[in-house]
Specification:
The protein has 13 helices and 14 strands. It is α/β, with parallel strands linked by helices. It starts with a strand and ends with a helix. The relative contact order is 0.14. The structure holds adenosine-5'-triphosphate.
Length: 327
């Protein structure tokens, strides 16, 4: 059985289509990533699947329950950790967990046992009686994940689980997420715009852009789709270089950016010398040249013609990160 099945899911805000006709399925026990730049529609998709937002059209089921006709059962069977923090700052970690357990009407003896088990899982058992106000960003995130698991959901929704966290804390959190999936068999759907995060955690990745899915597969297969190697050339005259080399028959794809060119071709090592010679013959300076195997960044570029970084961290992200730091 599929943990999640989505057919033609669409969300419009007035005349603007934020999510456009999405269809995909997620198997039980899978870690599935929605990767894309800010505004791609990731959070809107998660909000619809977790019944927080009504779709404009299309349908979806979570754990076999229809998100529009069976909202209560969907909610009972999922755990949600969204971007905006919802912990009570003045309560201890234990109290936050306990409050959530009461909301879900988990009997007291089971509740106490479960809370301790989960706090141990995220290594917060030693700090269970400290008030959340004193917690670091990473500790809060771990507590939110533990809390989202208290009612034993089969599917966990993680919206940008490591946004604004430092690399070390991010790594740490990835380990918990992997552990949850492996040890508890929980299906996880997460959104991210960190390539590395999607690459590390997700069994399959749907790359989203402008409300649609532009590619969906395992990370390896997506990279194979791009094929060959990627040469990146930085040059102050990249426009000229683009015109000079674009018609080389070996080139599978070539993209012009602000100060660089990316070229997709097989056996890059063989052709680098030829490209450098052509640049030199045309008096085009080259500041740097590098060859690498395709990354998810290249996959995004291949399918959209833009880099995710060009889309950039917008004001919304910076604001959220600032909020997290302040908290
Ligand atoms: N309630 C709303 N009303 C109007 N537009 C909205 C609303 N919620 C989201 N949008 C718009 O829908 C688009 C998709 O937003 P969404 O938050 O789903 O993107 P995202 O991929 O999750 O991006 P981010 O990484 O910034 O969260 C954006 O252009 C956003 O401005």
């Amino acid at each position: 059985m599929f943990a999640i099945k989505v057919e033609g899911l669409t969300k419009k805000f007035g005349g603007f289509t934020a999510v456009n006709n999405l269809s995909f399925s997620i198997k039980q026990g899978e870690v599935f990533g929605l990767l894309g730049p800010n505004g791609a529609g990731k959070t809107t998709t998660m909000s619809m699947l977790s019944t927080m937002l009504k779709p404009s059209s299309g349908k979806a089921s979570v754990n076999g329950f229809d998100i529009q006709t069976n909202e209560d059962d969907v909610r009972k069977s999922i755990g949600i950790v969204f971007q905006d923090q919802s912990l009570d700052e003045e309560l201890t970690a234990y109290e936050n967990m306990d409050f959530h357990g009461r909301l879900y009407r988990i009997p007291k003896n089971i509740r106490q046992e479960k809370i301790m088990e989960l706090l141990e899982l995220v290594e917060l058992d030693g700090k269970k009686d400290n008030i959340v106000k004193t917690y670091s960003g990473g500790m809060r995130r771990r507590l939110e994940i533990a809390r989202g698991l208290l009612h034993e959901p089969k599917v966990l929704f993680l919206d940008e689980p490591t946004l604004g966290l430092d690399p070390q804390t991010r790594n740490h959190l990835w380990k918990y997420i992997e552990k949850l999936n492996k040890e508890k068999g929980i299906t996880i759907i997460l959104t991210t715009h960190y390539m590395e995060e999607a690459d590390k955690l997700c069994h399959r990745i749907a790359i989203m852009d402008k409300g649609g899915i532009v590619a969906l597969d395992t990370s390896d297969k997506l990279k194979n789709d791009v094929g060959g190697d990627i040469i990146t050339i930085v040059s102050s005259e990249n426009n000229k270089l683009y015109s000079v080399i674009r018609s080389l028959p070996e080139i599978k794809n070539i993209e012009l950016h602000d100060s660089s060119l990316t070229i997709d071709l097989q056996n890059a090592e063989k052709h680098v010398a030829q490209i450098v010679t052509m640049a030199s013959d045309n008096s085009i300076p080259i500041d740097s040249i590098s060859i690498h195997k395709p990354t998810l960044e290249d996959v995004f570029l291949y399918f959209t013609g833009r880099t995710i970084r060009e889309e950039g961290a917008n004001g919304k992200e910076r604001m959220r990160m600032a909020q997290r730091v302040r908290k």
